[in-house]
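Schema walk-through. Below, the input block comes first and the output block second. Nothing else is stored per chain. Lengths vary across the set, and this one has 394 residues.
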Amino acid sequence: MKGQDYYIPAAAMAIALVFKLPALRNNWRDPLLRSVCVLLTLAGAVFTFAAPPTIDAVNEWTGIPNFSAPLVYCLMTAFSASCLVLMFNWRGGPAEEIRATSRRWISGYATVVVAIMVLFALGDAPEQRLRDFDTFYANTPYIRVMIAAYLLAHNVAAMTMVAMCWRWSLQVRGWLRGGLVIIVAGYAFSLTYDATKMSAVVARWLGHNLDDLSTYVAPPLASAGALISAVGFVLPLVCQRTSDSWQTWSTYRRLGTLWHEVQSTAPAGTPGVRMSWWSPAEIRVIQRESDIHDGFLRLGPCFDRRHRDAAYEEALAHGADEETARAVADAAMVAAAVRTSAADPEGTAAEDPGEGERVLIMADGPRDLVRISHALRHSPVVAATRRRATTADG
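--- output ---
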């Protein structure tokens, strides 16, 4: 593999990390978000430092032949640990249990990192090898143990991730399941990487030569596995957030009909809350809900249960279900109240006790308000109630 085969995935990891940094800055205490950022950082570092041009530059800069080998092994080991920690935070559960499990895995893999550096220091690897370090030094004292340690640690992490993600994928749906299946596919490549590396190293131990497996077959498998796994981790989080944002903006837009209807009764000169263009969609929805409820309070004296009951019965007669009929009934009462308020801005008609029992709308969150808004725009029952109210008030 050439340098760009490593640097392009590293750049992709860096771009993904840049997009996650604003969220991390605003919510840096979130362990899941921290785990994602650590994983992306380590994935990018593995790709960067495993590239042959970087290996040569690091060895030259440190003045230690093959110093890049334990450095890359340590980064791969840390990346394996970060994947496990992210998975435990992602799956959820009692916070203390997650922290304890994460600490155990971090401690175990930190021990492997220290062992790699100590074994490299004790061993003797004077001849620089950019592509075939594992097989060239497979029989060198201490170095052979270092190579076996990082491969074993990587293999344990890969098998754990495959088992954990596959079991979890059978219990969930949607983007999460898709991400877990992608992670399983990525770690299948990682397990194949481990198999080829171990085969080449064991062949050296037994006096045979399968160096091509380690030199030419394993690196593309490792790159593919790391990249696919990182995509599997990031994709559900990004897509779920995008989906949530889309749903929020959709709610804001669908509340528009009801909002415009009740805002038409606001006294002239009433100051509105100005929202900046960068205001989050969640804040816009909350403000629009607040405006609608304020409008209900203004229209309260004009609400007439007779309009709602008649519209409710009519909606049921047209085949609407209970939930839709209630929304149509509330929308009809709002439409009639708006016409009454417009025809009698002083509120004198509303004070007539003969108007019927006055009521309030008790909408349970934005979902009910969206149903009322939809009925206000599309229901023929509401349109008929509006016409009758306009005629009566006229």
